[in-house]
## 1
Amino acid sequence: MDLNRPALPLQNRAARNRKALAATAIATALLLSACGGGAAPQGAEQAAAADPASGANASGAVNICGVKDASGIYKGTAEAFTKANGKVTAKYTEIGATTDEARTQIVQRLEGKSTECDLFVTDVIWTSEFASQGWLLDQTKLVEANKDRLIPSTVETTKYQDKYWGSPFFTNAGLIYYQKDKVAKPESWQQLYAEAAKAPGNGYVYQGKQYEGLTVNFLEMLYSAGGEVLNEQGDVTVDSKETRDVLNFMSDGLKNGSADRAVLTYNEDPARLAYESGDFGYQRNWPHVYRLLNATPLASSFGVAPLPAWEGGKASGVLGGWNLAISAHSTNQAGAVAFIDFATTPDWQKHVAMDYSQAPVNEAAYSDPAVLQKMPFATELLASVKGAKPRPISPVYPQISQAIYKNVYAVLSGTASTEEAVQKMAEEITTAKASF
Amino acid sequence: MAIKTLLPGRSPSSATARPVSGRDRAERKLAFRMTAPSLVIMALVAAVPIGYAIWLSLNQYSVRTAGLSRFVGLENYINALASHEWWAAFGQTFLFAGISVSLELILGTAMALLLNLAFKGRAVLRTVVLLPYAIITVVSAITWQTMFQPNMGLVTNVLSTLGLPGGDVVWLGEHGYAMAVIVMADVWKTTPFAALIILAGLQVISAETYEAAELDGASKWQTFVNITLPLLRPAIVLAAIFRTMDALRVFDLPFVLTRGANGTESMSMLAYTQLRENRLVGEGSALSILTFLTVMVVSVIYVRFAGGNIRDVAKEEQ
């Protein structure tokens, strides 16, 4: 069959009109088998949709798959849901020790149309890639129904081509940890860098190794400076004054001692360990570091602040976090919907913060007294989360991110000039976007 | 010869009655039948995946639309060979392989000579030196990363305490230094392997040769250069082939230590990024095949030129 032909518009329209979820699923299955072996292009536009009402009558078992459950949040949520629901039993299956490994495992299952997993816990940056492949159930209606209890910036991370392909489960945003006895609370990046350069023990540590974390660190500054990588229409707009300013600012910071050159080898853990040595003034890291710092001699002297603004601008950041995506091959989509409904309730979102130290996707949770007691920096965290924006939304995000972190690294390590790096970055992102 | 008499339905008389060519054919048939199972297994585990990878490398697979692909012939290869990234990785991989394999052979020979001496506790030492080789590469990479951590790593600390150069260097963050750490980690881990192969070579050199040399009044150094080294050559070449093939496929050390930054991206890392991270199956497969061909060509060159001894030995045995 001709693979370039848009897939069967007539049958598809008929399928869309059908309300019952089961019927849609069967129609999709038929459509696929009609194309012989399932080699048909089943892109984002032809995907089946999740019915928000189906959760109420759900029963049976739901299997949730994702990365190793380090904080216990996935298994804990599955257990609590099973207990609360009574009809549906949920279980969590770990399919990878690291984020990268989990992605590989999920992609393999989705490519192979495996029915093993009903729900996947997906990193926010995977959404467009998975959705464009037709691997996920369209959750637009479900998200619309739950929208008033979810923080808007977290919902945006599940969006691809004007539809929602997941529901936010918990979120994540960068924070600045600082030594109250040595340095001032960061108000702007400029002030932070200036303060950090004042004395040898005031330095700033962040994630500057050549990897995804560097993309995040760079974008946090770029967004707060008012820059962007892609505009609303998806055009490449990274070749800008803001990009040059931020790159110069970061590389100057390495030269004048604001940041130690060692950050070029740091990802999250080495940055934290360096800061714990007491030789630094500022650290950019994720919220989980709070608990770890509290167990060190620095416990009484460190403070937490949201990411600062670019001088004269508005503070911004980059959203991390995890979404719940329903597999297009799930055999219990109603059960999956019921699980999502439970996981995103304001009540359970409080537990997300209190029991597992993760950032809730429900705004009210941040001002809950019980949450504030366990997570005293909840107000700062909420400010970071609300100001944060998603990373560039594109099915070729991994390539875009490589173009960013490789070229930023080249400037920081001194092997490329800002001008060369900006041009190369824009070129590589344009090439990536043109991927077949 | 013995096999022939075991052939079914074939008495010695009928064998002599037949023309020689028929006997040859039957013998070939038998040989084929006996090797067939191994051939089938080889085909399944080696030829089929390689063939499939070659097929993948001749196509492009859409990262935007599931299941969409198009045949592009050699385009993926042409693009790879025209790219700066491939040649950079190519050069860096050879630089790594050249330095680390040379060091491993020199140190491996020294280690083998030491282990070949008769001394108390030799058996224990032989086991102990193998330890680095038994450690998973990723684990040893993480250990090395920690040792070279700026400010708090063991090596950087010792260097700066002793006032030696390198104490204030961000080893994994600088060109040259980063490669040096990767080479050190590889040499530390695989020298025992080279030593083991060379030790096996040492032990087949007969004691009489050495006795003869001693009678002729040869010095230790003369004995080493004129007897040990030439006789050891097949073993060294063998170790060199194994180590070079491995070194040219290096992946885990740069992946953990630098993620390919500072001039340490290897050919395999490039292929991995395209295949796994970017899901560019065609482009990634082409890079894998190019890596495979590079390693194969190098191995053939080794056997051709450096491995003269191996072939001579093989001929003598025939």
## 2
Amino acid sequence: MAASLNGHSNGSGHGNGSASSAGAGTADIVARAQALFDDLSFTAARAWKDAGPDRKVVGYMPIYVPREVIHAAGFLPLGILGGGDQLEVIHGDAYYQSYICRIPRSTIELGVSGRLDFVDGMLFPSICDVIRNLSGMWKTMFPNVYVRYFDVPQNYRDDIGGNYYVNELSELMHDLGTLRGRPITDEELRASIAVYNENRRLVRALYDFRAERPWQVPAAEAYLILRAGLVLPVEEHTALIREYLAAAGAEERPKRDNCRVVVTGLFCEQPPLNLIKSLELAGCYVVDDDLLLVTRWLTEDVPLEGNPLQNLALAFLHHSESTAAKYEPNLKEKGQHLVRAVKRSGAEGVIFASPSFCDPALLDRPMLQHVLKDAGIPYIAFKYAENSGQMQPIREQAGTFADSIKLWSGT
Amino acid sequence: MTTIVTPKAAPAKEVVKDDSMVKQKEMMAAHYDRLTSASETGAKVVSTFVPGNLNELIMCFDLLNNLPEVNAIQSGLRRQSGAYVLEAEKIGHSEDVCTYVKSDVGMMAKGNIGPNGKKLPNPDALLLSYTGCFTFMKWFELLREQYKCETIMLHTPYMGDGKITPNMVEYMVKQIKEEVIPKLERISGVKFDIDRLREYLKKSAKAEDDLVHVLKTAKNKPSPIDAYFGGIYYIGPIFGAFRGTEDAIDYYRFLRAECEARLAEGKGPVTPDGDMGKERYRLVVEGPPNYTNFRQFWKMFYDEGAVVVASSYTKVGGVYDLGFRHDPDKPLETLAEYCLGVYTNRSLPMRIEMLANYIDEYQADGLLINSIKSCNSFSAGQLLIMREVEKRTGKPAAFVESDLVDPRYFSAANIKNRLESYFQMIEQRRAGGRAAA
């Protein structure tokens, strides 16, 4: 929204000037983000690492890790999201049965093919059994890499889940300090929290802006801008979003007669970029989604005063996104995040796009659909894989959905 | 002594069962009768899961323990699960997800009739022991939506680094003390008595000793037990609603004596077709079995003289053979450590080590993996497990695929072909070994 944009127009000036040049149009900025997206060798992250003798890179998988702790060690957090539709999976398929989703096999492919040979550590968040077990596979296959399964609490009491999580964070902080050769200080962590607070504010501003004027921020562009944040240093990414928002606000793009939808289920294995584009081509403006949740997992600024680990823990417990991998203790609250997302973004319907064989998304789906039905919100559902190539059926389904909303939503 | 039991579903063929199997069947039948008569007796019911089953704690509140996984298994064995799975898919559940869940959801949709032909009660509480399987969380969220009853989360952290840390235990004990117990007190109206818990835990440990003794008889040649197909019977009481009871102590004492008698007589396991013939292959098996074609699957083994001497599936409700016992001296900590240590809560490297050790300790010819389509907790990573175990032991491994309770994923011809090839491979290795010697 305009208020959010104005709120960040005088940001603290992070960014080292290597982001897009001042005054660049959206096309240039998006082209840079697209180049980062296309690069399966992680050239930018390798270059970052090569720029200093003590630099280290720590990879992480969806959906959430506290990147602040990695950043506080002076390391580069690197989001690993599988191989997309451009990676030929040769070795990875030999590690998985046909009924397991695609992201672990293409991630294994990235590892086995040497594309991640510069990565010093890998974090596997608590999301599902497949990613959980991948942590053990990584330990076995890459014994020289620091590997941690990063567990988060499913109990949200400060003195129970909170204490547990503070200790888990503390262990991670200790481990990364050991990897660096000297402990991470609270001051370093506070500074990193500040940097990520700013980044999250910009991400929220991007989402608000898109919800307000989706024709100005095509879903594929928003995705690429966001995705760049998984390979760039956070300061550069913050600058990139700021530039994109300025450029997108300055350009006038044609407004189509599209309906407005929230897309959900995309929180782990990534949809092909063409799928995101296809939804808009089919007549659906994406006004909210659960893509790349790590970039906005914490929904409010993390306080800078006091114990930084405690602050991160409390933010996780009380101010974080809802998703299938997270337990909802209150039956009445189940699925309400989706209803709120629809209302907040002015959406007219929901598209459930889930990766094939994704237990969390697919098991959650019926419950969310019941909530939407009760709220009178229309929805459709389909499945995809990161390498899905045939978009026509999805385009037809989304197009029919858009038509039905346009034709019948008032009746 | 063995007893001839004639099953209702297959009148043409007599099924041979150990006395222990008959005894267990009676125990299970009595338990289902207690459950299905709960509305008449006024008993309250809590549903929970096998991994992380806190039966001793549940009994402290006079609650009846209902295990949806076991209900799904019963539906599978009775060939009812296929229709239940289809029913769940018809009402919106994806064909991709866990069939235990869908069998349970479908069973609910079709009236929730238990194995004794009577309606299972609606639970008064769902004790979500979130241990070793992410699907459990979604499963009980789905049940909560139906039953609208209290759901108590007990989160068990995963042993990703191969160890139980003080932080994990403290987290779990605090959940048990400050969340689980007060809620169970409120639901049941029974005040928690820690000494009562200690008594149950003492009984658990006794039965666990005997179970371990039984499992370890498979180190003998020939093995008097089949530790997978037979093992599934052996774990029934202790993984279910009987751990901590006198019934369980009696059952495992009886089972132990039975196995020792078979051992003394030099006998192999009892199969549905009677005593197994000559033991030709000794296998370690990873992964759950298929339940829809359980006997057919088992027959493919015993017809070839293959006996399973150790299995991982019989450790999903507790890894007792590696030393864990419920400890009455630290009642809440022991419940936490129990949950943390179950097989599916162990990291992949721990599982690899465990299986490789089984092959050595039980002098097995190799590892067979039955990969279950709908169980990612077990299945994701099994192909790496297979390679690593082969590499470490030098013994051949094989891989078959099926499903827990979805009959669409049981292809008898495929499995049989693969097993026959595997047995040939073992023979060739042996011949190669003899030639080298």
## 3
Amino acid sequence: MTSIVYYFQVHQPYRVKPFPYDAIGSRTDYWDDWLNEDVAKRVAEKCYLPMNRQLLRAVERSSGAFRCSFSVSGTAIRQLADWAPEALKSFRDLADSGSVEFMCETSRHSLAALADPEEFRAQVAEQRALLKEHLGVEPTAFRNTELITDATVARQVKDLGFEVLLAEGADQLLHGRTAQALYGMGGADSFPLILRDFQLSDDIGFRFSNQGWEGYPLLAPTFNGWLESLPDERPFVGLFMDYETFGEHQARDTGIFDFMDTMVDLAVASDKLDFATPTEIVRRDPIVEDLDYPRPISWADEERDVSAWLGNHMQRAAHEAIYKLGPAARASGDPDLLNTWRDFTTSDHVYYMSTKCETDGDVHEYFSPYDSPHDAYLNVMNALEDLRRRLGAD
Amino acid sequence: MKVLVLGWEYPPAVAGGLGAACHGLTTALADRGHEVVLCTPADGTPSDTEPYPGIVRVPLGSDAGFSPFHPGALLDPYAVDPAPERAPAAPAPETEADPPAESSASSHARSARKLYGADLSAAIQRYSREAVTALAGHDFDVIHAHDWMTFPAALRLRFARRRPVCLHVHSTVIDRGGRSAPGPVGSISAVERAGLRTADRVCAVSGYTRDLLVREYRLDPGRVSVVHNAAPEGVMSPADRPRDPAGPTVLFVGRLTRQKGVGFLIRAAARVLESSPDARFVVMGEGEDRTRMIEMAAALGIGRRVFFAGGVSSALRDRAYREASVFVLSSVSEPFGLTPLEALRGGAAPVLSDACGVREVLPSAPVSPPWDAAGLAAQIVALLTDEEQRLGVVAKCRSELERLTWAESAQTLEAALEQARSTSGRRISG
């Protein structure tokens, strides 16, 4: 019996509005509220609402046998609370069903775990409060921003009392071993890691509607056949993806909703498959061995490292400029300024500055509201300069 | 004297300094009582929108208007990115009374596309072809032609009408990073070389440019007159700067091209920031080096202190002049350099490249080779840290600037035109 561990990432950033040089010192409206509201409403309409409804029906239909997990970033929770409260309510319904686990992350979907441990703890505390308030849950599992993981991250997560960390099943980590087993983090007291099976996850998340793919069109019986043919001793398979896959990255007319519905029913009926959440796995399965992380590993781009966010000089300059303001923002005693600064820590801002070309460049461009990485960089640097002056920081 | 002026840029069709210089010299000639026939490219707009007493305007090259394109034009460094100009994002909603009609930045970009667009070669040919026929009814004693785009027309008229030619060089292809002479036939350097060696007299915008012409095109220095540009008009703003809590500003204004040496300034900025960590560097302008410069500043770890303002309106640029403590002209080769004079009006102290013409008229301005990051940085730091010294430089340069007028320049030009006429007997064979 192999357990399917679904994990869906829900995230929306506060995108920065065009902020030219001459706006410094004369404007403080950094966020493109019009765009952010528009995106939040559109995604709620096309993805969150219909897919949450479908998953809730699957839970009810299977009497709770269907299980899955989510992490909803704090920025996404706040946007939904403001602009699509009915979508937030539908997440709460899933939480109330008892079959859906909501995990913790940083409240701003930030890189604080790498850059600023104090800020990391503050954002985790903030996220716990948001989850309690809006979804009524107290999380026991953790996933760091974009699955960025190494021993330092794992130690911080462990110290904050979580039981398990989700991570990417990268080749450079596994060296031919399977991702379908519970590992421990070397150098962090074997803190449990549940890894993503990127092959099977990306079959749904990226390749599903790719007509050039040899597996196209992917039908649920085929996909479940692959899952059922996994060796018996594999305790689980991690299928982790952006939740926006359903209805947004893969439009409804690709058949993605029907695929998921059928896939779930077939798995529930199968005697070789069932569903589990991350906390259920870690409480059930033994750790097979420790993994050694040579460097932080994420689920992004071919490299599976942090180069999607910190790969070029602009990204590193902006990253540095953002975290340099942290002490002043926390010491300011002004909750608005602190909140504003924290929204700049969202990793998407530096992601938009990536200058990678070829396939990953397309992905970056797909998500970016800017004409070019250089525009994204200048925009954020200008807004940060304005914020720096308001904070009276160096 | 009856003077035929062949111009390429002329207000309102202005892409750079050439238009202002042509306008300043031509109107000053008319003011001195000369009868002027002014030919500029026909761009479909009425040429006499701004009639000036003593100047008759004749548009040239109207046979097909301006239309793209000739591959040779790619050689032209003025050629503007065919993509719509990178908007400085959305204009800030509450920017004060900027004339909303059109920023000078975008009008410059539009003019530049029109004047130096993809079809530059063909446009020049049309202009030259029409010169002889369109001017059949006009009489003149001497031809005064501005920059290489008009040289072919000037030489045709010289032959057809047996009139002496004075060619005026505001900028050469060598300044703009082109190859040294001799270039292939038909290249810009070949046009410049052939024209300048045939001309009866040559005017250069600076001693720097004269020396370059002598060196690169082997001109006889005795045939070249130096006619400096005048200072742009406008009121002087107070030069003293109230202490800005955000730090003093070092300003650059210009196209982001290799010629302008922005990279040298950014390298120097890294050194300046070591001793003056609160300084800010503001780079105004667009160009093909933009992305490289942005990345360079980030790579040097000074991304937080270097701001790229893009193309801005003239109102914003003037404000930047009034706010900046120091203005840097970092060009690798600058025939003249109008921006330091504009900056002086605003009260910014100039630091000049040693390879520019404007230093000849601003002898009090600090000078450094642009590639010498340490030297350039030292000049900037000296002005940033000693306000008294900075004010002294501004005051001295301003008094030097006051002496620069178009009337003064036109007097020198007049002498050059006379010399063209007096030598023409020898140089134009009957």
